[in-house]
Request: fold
Amino acid sequence: MVWLHSKKIIIIIIGALLNAIAMNFFLIPANVYASGFTGAAQLLSRVLGEYTPVNISTGVLLLLLNIPVTILAWKKVGKSFTFYSFISVLLMSFFLEVVPIERVSRDILLNAVFGGVIAAVGVGITLKWGASTGGMDIVAMVLSRMKDRPVGTYFFTLNAIIIITAGYLYGWENALYTLVALYASTRVIDSIHTRHQKLTAMIITRKAEEMKEAIHSRLVRGITTIPAKGAFTNEPKEVMMIVITRYELFDLERIIKEVDPKAFTNIVQTTGVFGFFRRE
Reply:
């Protein structure tokens, strides 16, 4: 267990460093904006520096923007996910301060693509290991726990505000290249982790009771069990059906491996959920 947590911290450090490199070597020098809270912090830092006497770096603003949502997530989501996510934010803010801002290329398209891809690799591996890079990921997790709302609307709204504001203040060409960075990062994150916000896990196991207790102790989700029988062995088993968010996939995988490594699990996309989607 200690080794697992150590590996998780190492992955989070790598993810935070990759995000800082993408920002300071590619996106910030080219005035191309990242998505979510990172892009909001980047844009706000530039606006404050140019239109007010206040000068606050992107790293500091990113940390400040994440503090309220982290407090909310601590109360509504769970301590483990929130802790690792905040560590990710803290490390990214630190790396944004210590990694120098250097222009690698003068080609704005190369900056947009490479910045988006490198940042996405950092976000993708962090998500894959059961944490997040903060910001909208935490908001999405909180909303999925409070109400089954389409979080894509919130992602789109925040990114639209960033793009429109950047275009209005600094030129529409940079805003359009921001769309290129967003598209590249989204595609890479989808390939590393999963593009689906909700997933359905069908777990076929001989240890249904132990699995049920383990899942309930670590995930805030209900489970439906269905009696089943092996076609070749005629051995009685149970099928456990559970709908989770993509942020809970790491924890569910670890629970299954710990309780019943021989369990057969099928993870499928969930396009919609009707009815009660949480267990308080």
Observations:
- The chain has two domains: 2-192, 198-269.
